[in-house]
Amino acid sequence: MNPFREEAIVRLAAATGLPPEQIDSALTYPPTPELGDLAFPCFAAAKARRQAPPAVAQELARGEFQKPSDRIASAAAAGPYLNITFHRHAFAEWVLGEARSAAEDLSRSAEGGGRVVAIDYSSPNIAKPFHVGHLRSTIIGGALYRIFEALGYRPVGINHLGDWGTQFGKLIVGFKRWGSEADLKDILALNRLYVKFHDEEKKSPQLAGEAREWFRKQEAGDPEAMRLWQAIRDTSIEYFKRIYDRIGARFDAYAGESFFNDKMEPAIHLAEKAGLTQVSEGALIIDLSAHGINTPALLRKADGSTLYITRDLAAAIYRYDAYRFDQLLYVVGSEQSLHFQQLFKILELLGYPWAKSCNHVAFGRVLGMSTREGNVVYLEELLDEARERALKNMRENVEKRPEVEDEAAVAEAVGIAAIFFSDLSNRRIKDYQFDWNRAISFEGDTGPYLLNAHARIAGIIRKCGIEPARSLKDLDCRLLPEPEAHRLVMQVSRFPEALRQAAEELEPAVVAGYLLDLAKGLHASYQVLRVKGEEEKLARTRLELFVAVKRILAAGLRMLGIPALERM
To answer: Which of 8-12, 70-74, 288-292, 405-409 has the lowest mean pLDDT?
Structure first.
């Protein structure tokens, strides 16, 4: 906890009688730093006292906050708000001390206490190249994984692969008729066989029956069907891992749909035993209309086959048994909202108290993510396109970036930053329009802009000619009176708060917005907070602040899955 904020909370609780946690959640920031460092809205206190909020703010300013303090310098009423100002040099000393002791990870939080957050994300279908349709889930889920990890939770990344179903019967027929053993090791060849099956099926409808028969064999454990399925799965996972390595995605489990084949009947039995099921036209359903869900959940079709909700029901039960999670998150598009409403309600009706800990992290669609030719693309093509555009942009501005040695590596990082930040800077629930020219630009609210901010401050630190202070005793934070310096100090202090808010709201856009504000504050400070050529103690104190900002930018970019660059 920030001790300056903590003191303000304690004093406000003593003066108002409100619970500290209520005060903590109510505290906000004044619209400009000149007005103060914290703002307390007096509405709740006014209601308890039966006074007008401005009158309460004035009483607090004249009463409790007239007492001297080593941390709080003053407080002033501003309408219904009490604006609190810290002793800024003392606050800067604390912030820089925290930044130094926390080293690379300024969140340094233990609040998660090792509690488990299981996150189901990405989940592509095997035997198909990674489609951009799975990209948002991968980006958002990966960001949440890293944010929870930074806050001291133990995240478990689950890749629930689409590795079972009638499509494999179709693929096996395609392989038997038109493929070769070599195709089993080539994801693009497998996809071509699948496409060819659908083309040929239009001319020869009997192929659908062959596909159903092969899937029946697969479900029965036929050796040849299982050999082909396993080969296809292995090739797909190897391909996915190559993609994930490229974009820095990480998973702890690849338990796909096939893993739950033997766990579905026990899950159905639980629902039957609880009296939740009924038969409708030969199918086994759960009627949820009494709970405000008018579409029944279909557990088993009349032909005996199961559906996604059956597998997800079995999977949720398994995951709690395996991980004892504190939260279970499903990072899946908003079009699946009904599915998760049904799933969570069934788990609740089965009597699982942890059902309340399940959340659908819904997201909207991304529009306009295509090549120059206007075609929807696979992820590798999208990444290649981003790298190509970044390289072109860099070469057009080469006079501004003379330090670049490995253009290809920098262009790859810039391309990933462009794609990832375009996604994560938008509230996840909203559809957004992807625009290549904006995404790849080094100006504006973009990933490349943040990379440039980090590389620029890294360059200043390298070239300033001043060695960093060995200890905080070599600094004098009274030499940081400038508004630009205080703004940076305040922004550095808010990084753990941004991570907490992102975790509470399951919204990585909070971190993205925070980083943009920090980078803008940094750019506004260059001319004022010069280091090179200044008196030694002043230079070292300013340098310490810049080093803290650089660490924050690197850590924040890492939360979003974007590699920070030292040179570009």
So the answer is: 405-409
Instruction: Return the higher-pLDDT residue of 156 and 407.
Output: 156
The residue ranking higher by pLDDT, 246 or 67, is 246
DSSP state, residue 144:
H
Mean pLDDT within 40-68:
94
Tokens for 321, please give them. Answer: 């048994």
Confidence of residue 400 (pLDDT cuts 50, 70, 90): low
Total Cβ atoms within 10 A of residue 523: 14
Residue 168: its pLDDT value, please? 92
Q: Tell me the average pLDDT across 26-39.
A: 94
Kindly report the CATH class assigned to 379-559.
mainly alpha
* Residue type (1 letter), 480: L
Lowest mean pLDDT among 306-310, 369-373, 426-430: 369-373
Encoded tokens for 389: 């555009």
Residue whose token pair is 């071509």: 192
CB 537 within 8 A of CB 475: yes
Three-class SS of residue 453?
A: helix
| Rg (alpha carbons) of the chain, rounded to whole number | 28
Q: How many CB atoms are closer than 10 A to CB 425?
A: 21
3-86: CATH class: alpha beta
- If residue 154 lies in a helix (H) or strand (E), which one and from where to where? strand 154-158
CA distance 107 to 560: 14
Question: Please, which residues bridge with residue 333 across strands?
Answer: 363
Q: If 0-12 CB within 10 Å is exposed, 13-18 middle and 19+ buried, where does residue 367 land?
A: exposed
CB 316 within 8 A of CB 358: yes
What per-residue confidence (pLDDT) applies to 111?
Answer: 85
- The three state secondary structure string of 208-265 is HHHHHHHHHHHHHCCHHHHHHHHHHHHHHHHHHHHHHHHHCCCCCECCCHHHHHHHHH
Looking at residue 516, its amino acid is L
What is the reported pTM? 0.93
Kindly list the strands in the beta sheet with 154-158, ordered across the sheet, starting from the edge strand earlier in the chain. Answer: 154-158, 116-120, 327-333, 358-363
For the residues 401-420, what does the mean pLDDT come to?
Answer: 84
* Residues noted as catalytic: 128, 131, 134
| Three-state DSSP state, 115 | coil
Q: What is the DSSP string of 541-566?
A: HHHHHHHHHHHHHHHHHHHTT----S
Give me the DSSP letters along 489-509: HHHHHTHHHHHHHHHHHT-TH
CA distance 460 to 463: 5
Distance CA 285, CA 351 (A): 18
Specify the pairing of strand 154-158 against strand 116-120: parallel
Task: Answer whether 163's CB lies under 8 Å from 258's CB.
Answer: yes
Count CB-CB contacts under 10 A for residue 431: 11
The residue type at 296: P
What is the model's pLDDT at position 104? 47
Which residue's structure tokens are 């860099």? 394
Domain extents in the chain: 3-86, 165-230, 379-559
